[in-house]
Amino acid sequence: MSMLPRDMQATNALDQPLSWHLERVPACWQPALTQPEARAALQTLATFVDQRIADGAQIFPRHPFRALHHLAPDDVKVVILGQDPYHGPGQAHGLAFSVPHQCPRPPSLRNILAELTRDYPDELFSGNHDLTPWADQGVLLLNAVLTVEQAKPASHANKGWEAVTDALLSQVAATPSPKVFMLWGAYAQRKRALIEAGARGPLHVLTANHPSPLSARRPPVPFVGCGHFRQANQWLQKHGVDPIDWLAL
């Protein structure tokens, strides 16, 4: 069940100071956010993001830490790591690759859902664009960078978010429960050493190219046909963990 605060609204532009959001991150995630490097980065980010809002920048999503409100570190079964949020109005809502259902599918999400139907061709799929049901089942949909400015992809990269999300990934890896990491594209795959170094329980890493149309069909491991959704469930079940109902969207 979601732990989202009741006041979360439909609009997706950030309209509160970053400190406001930090105060509301569930206590179970605070050990990562209070690590010295992450804490220092968050102080820098708070100044930067608040100044950009004061300057009139439109920043997405409205709730940067939303992914952490759906599950505790011990409940994570699968991590899907994105790079940064979608940069168009009405798109990003705090879960990597996900958009509200009324929003048209971005190209990467289109390929993700097409791959899902390839993995489960004989099962009914509603076609929902909102991946919240995955988050509520134990899928951490985390971007490495948690904010972005309108029409400026990667505009908040290298501002400190990477230290914060690295700490979150390390906290998840250090839990004893079995978990799968889906690392799509070179950017996500650079986190593999960090994840494996901190692992304290059974861990399975699945890699493929990014689902973007620019790379989804390219070698060395095309995203199209990678079979990650079925492979993840098979591995979880082998380790005594209930599988993800990927089609429950």
Task: Present the secondary structure layout.
Elements: H1 18-23, H2 30-33, H3 36-54, E1 59-60, E2 78-82, H4 107-119, H5 132-137, E3 139-143, E4 148-149, H6 161-173, E5 179-184, H7 186-189, H8 192-197, E6 203-208, H9 228-238
Parallel strand pairs: 2-3, 2-5, 5-6
Antiparallel strand pairs: 1-4
Helix pairs in contact: 3-6
What do you see in this structure?
The two termini are 15 Å apart. The protein is of the alpha/beta class and 249 residues long. The chain contains 9 helices and 6 strands; from the N terminus they run αααββααββαβααβα. The longest helix is centred in the first third of the chain and has 19 residues, at 36-54. α3 packs across α6 (161-173). The strands form 2 sheets. It has a 4-stranded parallel β-sheet with strand order 3-2-5-6.
Strand content: 5-15%
Query: What's the mean pLDDT score?
Result: 94
**Helix amount, in percent?**
25-40%
How many distinct beta strands? 6
Task: Characterize the quaternary organization of these chains.
Answer: single chain
Largest sheet, spatial ordering of strands: 3-2-5-6
Helical/strand content category? alpha/beta
Shape: globular
Low-confidence stretches: 1-10
Largest sheet: 4 strands, parallel
The total of helices stands at 9
Distance between the termini: 15 Å
* Rg on CA atoms, Å: 17 Å
Order of helices and strands: HHHEEHHEEHEHHEH
